[in-house]
Amino acid sequence: MSTKAKTEFKHVSYLWDDKKAAALEGDEVGLLIYRSNLLGADLRLTNYGGGNTSCKAMAKNPLTGESTEIMWVKGSGGDIGTLKRSGLAALYVNRLRALERVYRGIEHEDEMVELFNHCIFDLASKAPSIDTPLHAFLPFKHVDHLHPDAAIAIAAAKDGKKITQELFNGTIGWVEWQRPGFDLGLKLRECLNENPGIRGIMLGSHGLFTWGDTAYESYINTLEVIERCAQYLEDNYGKKRPVFGGSKIQSAPADKRTAQASVLAPVLRGFCSSHVRMVGHFTDDERVLEFINSKDLDRLAPMGTSCPDHFLRTKISPLVLPLTPDQDLSDAKAIRTALAPSFDEYRKMYAEYYNTCKHANSPAMRDPNPVVLLYPGVGMFTFAKDKQTARVAAEFYINAINVMKGAEAVSSYTSLPRQEAFNIEYWLLEEAKLQRMPKPKPLSGRIALITGSAGGIGKAIAKKFVDEGACVVLNDNDPQRLKEAEEEFNKLYGKDAFCTAVLDVTSASQITTAFETAARYFGGVDIIVNNAGLSISKPIDEHTEKDWDILYDVLVKGQFLITQAGVNVMRKQGIGGDVINIVSKNALVSGPNNAGYGSAKAAQLHLSRLNAAELGPDKIRVNVINPDAVIADSKIWAGAWAEGRAKAYGVKVEELPAYYAKRTLLNEIILPGDIANACFAVVGGLLNKSTGNVINVDGGVAAGFVR
After folding, report:
1. Which of 85, 106, 172, 568 has its CA at a distance of 20 to 30 angstroms from the CA of residue 597?
2. Is 597 a catalytic residue?
3. Distant-in-sequence, close-in-space partners of 300: CB < 8 Å, separation ≥ 6
4. Please, which residues bridge with residue 281 across strands?
5. How far is Cα 519 from Cα 525, in angstroms, rounded to an integer?
6. Residues 548-570: tens digit of each pLDDT
7. pTM for this one?
8. Up-side HSE of residue 131: CA atoms within 13 Å toward CB?
9. Dihedral sign from CA coordinates of 674, 676, 680, 683
10. Among the options 216, 597, 649, 660, which is catalytic?
11. Which among 475, 505, 538, 427 has a CA at the least distance from the CA of 181?
């Protein structure tokens, strides 16, 4: 097989490996997956979850034993970069094409989707997507449909058809914008019939189709077409006028952008969470700054995006914030007052868009809040149901910026008409897809900071919260322990579930940094769990002033400072929140050799009551979990504390778990997961009207009963 040299491509990545491809020779489906993963690995070729690929090959009909042509195509949902066989739909080509006989016209094309199920070859197939007929009516063995920014920039240009014709000397066809579906598949076939010998088709305001008779031919054809588009754009940037009309303002310095974003994010999150709690993402990518600082921002931003994949994730248009890069954001109330009219106007605009464009059978209007918020001179915020969706929305809006930049360089940018955009956003098939999605988990949209969460009880709580849908801020005062927890969480949950911060709860600067990290990475915080601690067990005559100070600094002052900082963020958001304080049975039970630790725990407990009484008007609930003898994975029990308690009770250290269990009413050993379950019970939704409570998780210690 003869392959192109990587150096021939400047704007796309040539990743084909002859040895890997040779190992798949004869396996067309395997080569389809290989090609798809290579294409999806380069976000310049297609955005996350966007586009689809297919191959056609002969296979034995399981009912007749005859050889028949089958098409394998990426199924509904998923991403070609991570595509596996399980993500493919396999269908009989002859049956798919025969559906044309029962097709009743474009007004009825949605009914064709259900008929795809009658064409399935592999009963374990992924559900076929709406793009299935677009591949079926093209005769080529391998077909790529991608959404490269460089191609969409031309497809969304006012003179896109003319540019395509001239740029490729008639070897790339053109099909005007049309919503994906059965009818568009027929239009592709018609374009091919009218232009025999073309190597691809540009879809107006949408994307690109390319093909080949082998997986490699399709791959190289795709790269060559996109490379040509990208080079054409590069040759024209700044040629007829400055990019985006030139700069209107200058970006704030990087550290100032970070600081402004950290302060503002919770306020924005509060506005965007007026219907349902949202998680945020922030980027000050240079491509974003070039656009939001430009003279053309005010003209282009309201136009919205073109490619359906873009606006399905970014909404019809962004909200440009009426703030200056160096604006004083210290007074959250004043900033909310200043921004409220902009959010009201956006919601009104969205409602008008819905009411003007809706059909008799349209789904109910969805959340009218913006997804994309642009802060000139600072960066872009995005808010969505979870971190991954917010991050991907930001990636898609950067795609849209690239498209606008390219289209403006070679012609002028055109977005989809509002009605066409609405017909995609509120498409009944799109609504059906949304309805099929799993229901949100109890903590979806919630952000939690658990102190001391790199091990023991704290890590168990963090895992439980992530399992239930939350995003967490992992932290510890031990950088090595935190690094190990980070590696574990990344392997278990991926990068969108957590962020990290080194945090000593007695350090005001580290506390500030931790909450700034939470705001910048997720948009704010909803749940604070004061879990970090230490213990010292000594007789009164051996207890030092240093022992006393560190116990009160970490347990009492640390709880106060973390709560104070967390409440500040929660008040900016204005959507309530939870504080859970992990205290101890020792707050209520007197025992030997425990004056410093026990009294500090008692102070934590009463501080919790005081905070609950004060924070109720803010809808911030404060509750206490009182554990006892949680030994597993605990730094406390790894040191002198265990020896001290064993000595106090007249047992060996290794006998402590059984000793503690036997003294409980339930005769149970308490594990970190038990405390995590109690924390989830408090914040999981069933106790939303409960504050100021103490929940004992100690196996039953009568002396520790509150009442």
Report:
1. 568
2. yes
3. 244, 291, 404, 408, 413
4. 382
5. 7
6. 999 999 999 999 999 999 999 99
7. 0.93
8. 25
9. positive
10. 597
11. 427
